Amino acid sequence: MAETPASPSRPMDIPDEAWTEAVRREAKVRPLAAAAPKSVAVVQAAATDLGLSTAQLYRLLRAFRAQPVTRSLVVTKPGPKRGARLLPAGVEQRIEQAIDGSYKSRERPTLRKLQRDLRTDCHAAALKPPSRKAIQARVSARSLKELAKARDGSEAARQRFASAAPGLRPRSPLATVQIDHTLVDIQLVDERTRAVLGRPWLTLLLDVFSRCVLGLHLSFDPPSASGVALAISQGVLPKAEWLAERGLDLLWPMHGTPHALHLDNGREFHSRALKRGCQQHGIRIDYRPPATPRFGGHIERLMGTLMTRVHALPGTTFSSVAARGDYPSEQRAVLSLREFERILTLEVLGPYHNEVHSALDRTPTAAWADGVAALGVRLPADAAAFMLDFLPFEERVVRRDGVRLFNVLYFDGTLAPLLDRADRHCRVKYDPRSMDAVFVELPEGGHLRVPCADLGRPAVSLWEQRTATRRLREEGRRTVDEAAVAVAVEEQRRVLEQARSTSKAARRAAARLPANRSMPDRPHTPRPATVEADGEEDARIPPVVIGEASKTEFLS
Questions:
Q1: With contact defined as beta carbons under 8 Å apart, do 418 and 491 qualify?
Q2: Which of 114, 361, 438, 476 is the most exposed, having the fewest neighbouring CB atoms within 10 Å of its CB?
């Protein structure tokens, strides 16, 4: 069969055999193309040497003069070009209509269904149905972005095909710190009864420059502003005391005030307490663009690394139902929250911080040490007040009998000077883990620790306070007073203790109880008056929404 010059293509895509032949022809054709017109005898001699006819050599000369490169001399045998469509026009039209009409839909039909539909359509029109290979070729010829947009939605197509700018590249430790949460892939048990409580939440702080973990916080409560505050405080302040409390004899030298926090758009990262605390200490907050998880890739990879290592612990739930198979996670669970916290900390301070990181070509510990040696770190001016600056708060009025928060009265004589002010509104900060005292922010700066007016009242968490209040309201009580709440909390604790070994929900609730669980024996002193639940504005407890109770108290 006669040969014709091939259409230009990339040299590396040309088969070796065809390319070798083109190089051989180029040695004869280039001198002929560059010289003055040759006689017919010269051209015939060159054609004979190349094993071509005179007409073929003249075609090669025309092609080479138009594009004087070797690839223009690559020839192919005549026939249909690669990718040419040879099906009848009626079949081609039906394939295109089927792709546009049904395949490009949000229901995402499979290629097999598209083939069945086309077979039915072609049989009805007395046409030969196309093969699966032919249909696949027509689908593959379409724009991938166009198909993704039609089948998965515009946002999914944008995430998949939008160009991604280079990631964060801080030049010093603490220049950028990322914070995020994850539900840990492990079932934990009660520390006393060893009954299963469920999966904890983990909040992590990551220094992007060194990939070091600055802080971590574990809790059975979902992500909240309080948990973020505790994690930030641990990350910023020295950790020697924290490690000693957990019996860990390892170094954790990473600490200091970040220059910027890189956060997603979770509600817990938009609390007023977090914003004011960052503003107070010169920390910039940078929020990721919505629905762009790739901007948090550093901490997402860290969490993935840690979860992979958690999968080796007893009681793991693995990353999915399919990965777990028939592994009995709850039956194999043996670790309590405190025990798991120690194991996770050992994993971070041991292997993770001291193994070569692929993105750094050195260990995170070495990267941190080199960065700190060159540039140092910034520490809070007042370490004792740092955590207070991040705690959630409520606006309240200071009265003669103290300040009331969540239907509990707090009193101390040091509040007296605030009564002499025209504006007695102040911010009252609280630690939801224990409501035995609050912290009143003074107008001139600083805080006053104000204990509960009823000094015999047990240490109650905000979760217990709100649950007891809801219980009383469900019983039809129109008033809520502190004594009734205290009695309800104490009774609730007794019920929870009895149910620890039978109900997972009850066991999880019991795990939230403060260390001081018992109410001291004391005569009950009636309060002068009860506070109407629908009366004074600052005496009310925010309404509880089922499923949101663990979050809403921190969003002020």
A1: no
A2: 476
